[in-house]
Amino acid sequence: MEYELERKKLIDSLVRRGYISKPEIIKAMMKVPRHLFVPKEIEPYAYHDCPQQIGCGQTISAPHMVGIMVEKLDLAPGQKVLEVGGGSGYHAAVVAQIVGLKGHVYSVEFVKELTKIGKENIKKCGLGEIVTMINGDGSLGLPEYAPYDRIYVTCASPDLPAPLIEQLKDKGKLLIPSGGRHYQTLVYLEKKGKKIVKKDYGGCVFVPLRGEYGFKLY
Questions:
Q1: Catalytic residue flag (residue 61)
Q2: Cβ contacts of 126 within 8 Å, gap of 6 or more
Q3: Cα–Cα distances in Å, from 194 out to 121, 168, 172?
Q4: pTM score of the predicted model
Q5: CA 203/CA 184 separation, integer angstroms
Q6: At 86, is the secondary structure helix, strand, or coil?
Q7: What distance in Å separates the CA atoms of residue 107 and residue 95, rounded to the nearest whole number?
Q8: Of 124, 15, 131, 107, which Cα lies nearest the Cα of 63?
Q9: Which of 19, 98, 150, 180 could share a disulfide with 14, CB 3.0–4.6 Å?
């Protein structure tokens, strides 16, 4: 199958370098054809471990960063997950492989054009029953389907949006890049009753979050 060997080489490299280790994540990333989630002209570079431009000033995260985030989220079959920053749909597709038909991924994308592209990509991969892509302000979360077992944000936030924390279930987990416009820290939160447990997982660089709790445009 076209690109299957390149995909296997990439996943093997991510395992070797310690970015991913859980069997279910390795299997999920092997199943998702990343080349379907990038523009046709850069398809041959889809399995390079770096971010790729997907149009509208947005990027698809480097595979190692997707792997890191999926590992840290501690995903399991049947979970309800909220993604903020759906992009072209790749990250949601990987998560969908893990939560399965008994789970669901709600993905909110700010850019209308990208939402349409993401929906088409998800459909092409046969994941339309598990992933719902919505155009809107993801910094506000998606209260109509809350609470969520897991929430993750694929764009940089200047702070920790209160609506996202509110929409977590008890014992729910949130992963978000937080900090400045050009450099952030990957922040993990776990909700335990009225208490929030927080950890930092090191530096990262994401495109800015847009919306009410995001960065203001120049």
A1: yes
A2: none
A3: 39, 12, 12
A4: 0.95
A5: 6
A6: coil
A7: 11
A8: 15
A9: 19
Task: Name the catalytic one among 13, 61, 88, 139.
Answer: 61
Residue 41 burial by CB count (10 A; 0-12/13-18/19+): exposed, middle or buried?
Answer: exposed
Going by DSSP bridges, is the β-strand pair 80-84/148-153 parallel, antiparallel, or unpaired? parallel
DSSP E strands in 20-120: the ranges are 52-55, 58-60, 80-84, 104-109
Check residue 107 and give left, alpha or beta (phi > 0: left; psi -120 to 50: alpha): beta
158-182 pLDDT tens trace: 999 999 999 999 999 999 999 988 8
β 168-179/195-204 pair status: unpaired
| Domains of the chain by start residue, with CATH | 4-204 (3.40.50.150)
Identify the bridge partners of residue 53 per DSSP, sorted by sequence position: 59
Whether the Cβ atoms of residue 133 and residue 144 lie closer than 8 Å to each other: no
